[in-house]
Design brief:
The complex is a heterodimer of chains A (about 425) and B (about 280).
Chain A lengths: L1 H19 L26 H7 L1 E5 L3 H4 L2 E7 L2 E6 L4 E10 L2 E10 L5 E8 L5 H5 L8 E8 L2 E11 L8 E4 L17 H6 L7 E8 L5 E3 L24 H7 L11 H10 L5 E6 L2 H20 L5 E6 L2 H8 L9 E3 L3 H7 L3 E2 L9 H9 L3 E4 L5 H10 L4 E4 L2 H9 L3
Parallel strand pairs in A: 9-10, 9-17, 10-12, 12-13, 13-14, 14-15, 15-16, 16-17
Antiparallel strand pairs in A: 1-2, 1-8, 2-3, 3-4, 4-5, 5-6, 6-7, 7-8, 10-11
Chain B lengths: L7 H6 L1 H7 L10 H7 L4 E5 L2 E5 L1 H4 L6 H9 L1 H4 L4 H19 L11 E13 L12 E10 L4 E8 L1 E13 L2 E22 L2 E18 L2 E21 L4 E12 L4 E16 L1
Antiparallel strand pairs in B: 1-2, 3-4, 3-11, 4-5, 5-7, 6-7, 7-8, 8-9, 9-10, 10-11
Classes of the chains: A alpha/beta (about 425), B alpha+beta (about 280).
């Protein structure tokens, strides 16, 4: 009897564990970002040195985890390293001391919680002297270690060629920079995520706009509030069920941030110089009329500050298209249309954005270009197809949940 | 569990029992007889070359004492001569006889069909905030109707009124100054329940949906909303029938509401009533 009872109890325990495992693990990996030991006492690099370090590198030891090539790109205050394998990347801070360039930061896989510290140097004889004096080095090699499962492994990156540059191409990250499921250090659709997003190599963001009960446009993705996005159990209705004050006072996003207003999100985008495009995903028709004046006001502010940034009202369905067309002088409100070619023409939007699974559509993309408009695809996350769309496609941008992979393919393009 | 008997001598002296032991479902020699006839699975015995099916209802009878053994031994002498049908009939008669002699009302009472109503009253709380926001007023009634066929697996429906949470708190540093909120979350599940009982201990598993209502009063505005959530249910408890129809029990259970990622755990006392037998 005892044995059978034990089996019964074990069975119950296993069932509880199985049910519990259905809940996604949204805990961000513990990133060793604060271990700036090597960088203590170093000086910042000049902007000329930053540009000289940017490039496509061949990885010597360490290729097992990260693939044969890496792209190093200056992203704000740090360098981002986009690897070609397993959607992996590194965020490194740099400094110079006594003729040697030091990098320190962390690497991680975008699709799981594996992460670790990474430390690299450029010795004076490996190109640091030239880089620091603003000259293009004949040889440029970064060597160092990274920690994987607690073990230090060696890695070496040797400069191969400059990165591919096309200032008209958009790497657009979903939900302000990334989803909660991707375990980034900030919540999706938060101001903090918009600020963080440049590290992922993006120059555009997509954010989701809904209205509160008192018609304030705020940024939130799901139709209903839920524990995937917020911490409070008792808010289970739609965003439009609650007043702005209720949401701001009592609702926190998964990493503790407040739900941002559209204006706060746009301000964060404007303050982040890497971002050149904001795609406003309108969640339902009544949103459009509310966000249009905010879009106009924001674009006017950007123009007065000489800030080059585009804000597009997303048109994902015909109801929203009709709401958009009802706006007085709707052509003055830049838009992006996800619908078929005839509705795209009707919309007068300046960007056409079909789903990626419809293929490369070269004729349609050419037709869009012939109208002096642009074409993006959404939401492309599959590395092989990212490679194909960048290598063979004529699109002008990709909306993705894995911008580091798009950045790798784009900047490594020959 | 091993199939190896612990005492083979006894087996060899008792051919009848040995033939029972050849049944595939025997798990442990300590249950030479017990397991043959108490096994909780439908099973097939090979007696004198004939496959004989045993339904689990027959197998569930208690046959642990010496009288049972004696009855088996008495049949030993004729076992080799009777044909397969006779063997089957003898076993059935024997099992039927044992039922009357040794079974207790309710404790092994799955030999009839019945419907049982289980009325529960207990305390539920959100397990995520178990240590921080215990709400003693969260008493939750529940009703479960179980169909108990002549198998151990019972099936039924369950509903309840679960006070998932009921909180009142103050946010002193909101951007609107000090702000109060009063919020309650109640659930009304409709679940398909499966249940198995062993030695009075019942294990319950359920799947279904819950109609959840949320009422919030904050910053001068009341908001009531509701939604449906897929729901898993697990429970374990003890049931004791003190008469043919009435029993009591207690149960610990956990409701898991999908998407909300809330687990509501509870303890409840139950009143069990067999309201239909045949």
């Amino acid at each position: 009897m005892k044995i059978k009872l034990t089996i019964w109890l074990l069975l119950v325990l296993v069932m509880v564990m199985i049910l519990d495992s259905c809940n996604p693990d949204l805990t961000p990996p513990t990133i060793p970002i604060d271990e700036k030991k090597v960088l203590q006492g170093t000086k910042s690099l000049t902007s000329e040195a930053d540009v000289l370090i940017e490039g496509v590198y061949r990885i010597k030891p360490g290729g097992d985890e990260f693939g044969p090539l890496a792209v190093i790109k200056k992203t704000g205050d740090q360098f981002s390293v986009f690897f070609g394998k397993s959607i992996s990347y590194a965020i490194l801070y740099a400094g110079e001391k006594k003729g040697t360039v030091y990098f320190e930061g962390y690497w991680r896989f975008a699709q799981n919680s594996n992460t670790g510290s990474m430390s690299l140097t450029i010795d004076p004889t490996a190109g640091a002297s030239d880089v620091l004096s603003g000259k293009k080095p004949s040889v440029l090699i970064l060597t160092g270690t990274y920690k994987l499962y607690g073990v230090d492994k060696k890695i070496s990156l040797e400069y191969q060629r400059p990165i591919h540059i096309d200032t008209n191409y958009y790497i657009i990250s979903h939900r302000g920079g990334g989803r909660n499921i991707d375990r980034l250090p900030a919540s999706e659709n938060s101001v903090e995520m918009i600020k963080y997003s440049e590290r992922l190599g993006v120059n555009g963001i997509e954010i989701d706009v809904q209205l509160t009960k008192d018609s304030i446009p705020v940024i939130f993705h799901d139709e209903y509030m839920n524990k995937r996005l917020i911490n409070e159990d008792y808010f289970i209705g739609k965003v439009s069920d609650y007043t702005y004050a209720q949401l701001r006072a009592f609702v926190t996003l998964k990493n503790g941030e407040k739900i941002p207003t559209l204006e706060e999100a746009l301000k964060a985008a404007m303050d982040n110089n890497a971002i050149k495009l904001v795609w406003l995903d309108s969640k339902y028709p009544s949103v459009v009329r509310k966000i249009a004046p905010i879009q106009k006001k924001f674009l006017d502010q950007a123009k007065s500050k000489n800030r080059n940034i585009r804000v597009l009202i997303g048109i994902p369905d015909e109801d929203i298209l009709n709401a958009y067309l009802k706006i007085d002088n709707h052509k003055n409100y830049p838009a992006l249309c996800e619908l078929d070619s005839s509705l795209f023409v009707k919309s007068t939007a300046e960007v056409w954005a079909p789903r990626w699974s419809l293929g490369l559509q070269p004729d349609m993309v050419k037709s869009v270009h012939d109208q002096s408009k642009q074409a993006f695809v959404w939401t492309l996350d599959v590395p092989d197809f990212i490679h194909t769309f960048i290598k063979d496609g004529k699109f002008d941008g990709i909306l993705t949940n894995y911008p580091t992979q798009v950045a790798y393919e784009f900047y490594a393009k020959e | 569990m091993s199939f190896m008997p612990k005492n083979k001598e006894i087996l060899d002296k008792q051919n009848v029992i040995l033939s029972f032991l050849q049944m595939r479902f025997c798990e442990n020699y300590n249950y030479v007889i017990l397991n043959e006839v108490r096994c909780s699975r439908p099973c097939v015995a090979n007696l004198d070359g004939m496959n004989t099916g045993f339904s689990r209802s027959l197998c569930s009878l208690r046959m642990t004492n010496s009288k049972t053994l004696a009855l088996l031994r008495m049949k030993k002498s004729i076992f080799g001569r009777i044909n397969a049908i006779s063997t089957t009939l003898l076993i059935l008669v024997f099992l039927a006889l044992s039922t009357g002699l040794f079974s207790k009302p309710r404790s092994v009472g799955d030999s009839t069909f019945s419907f049982t109503a289980e009325l529960g009253l207990g305390y539920n709380t959100d397990l995520n905030s178990l240590l921080t926001e215990i709400q003693l007023q969260n008493f939750s009634p529940s009703l479960r109707i179980l169909w108990k066929p002549d198998h151990r697996l019972n099936i039924g429906l369950q509903t309840a009124r679960i006070n998932i949470m009921d909180i009142q708190k103050n946010e002193p540093h909101s951007e609107f100054g000090s702000a109060d909120i009063r919020a309650s979350l109640k659930g009304y599940p409709a679940l398909l329940i499966i249940n198995m009982n062993l030695y009075g201990i019942g294990i319950y598993g359920g799947l279904g949906t819950t109609y959840v209502t949320s009422a919030i009063e904050a910053i001068g505005t009341k908001v009531s909303v509701n939604n449906w959530y897929y729901t898993y249910y697990l429970g374990i408890g003890y049931n004791y029938f003190f008469s043919d129809s009435f029993g009591i029990g207690f149960e610990a259970d956990v409701y898991t509401f999908s998407l909300m990622q809330i687990r509501s755990g509870g303890l409840k006392l139950k009143l069990n009533y067999d309201f239909l037998n045949w």
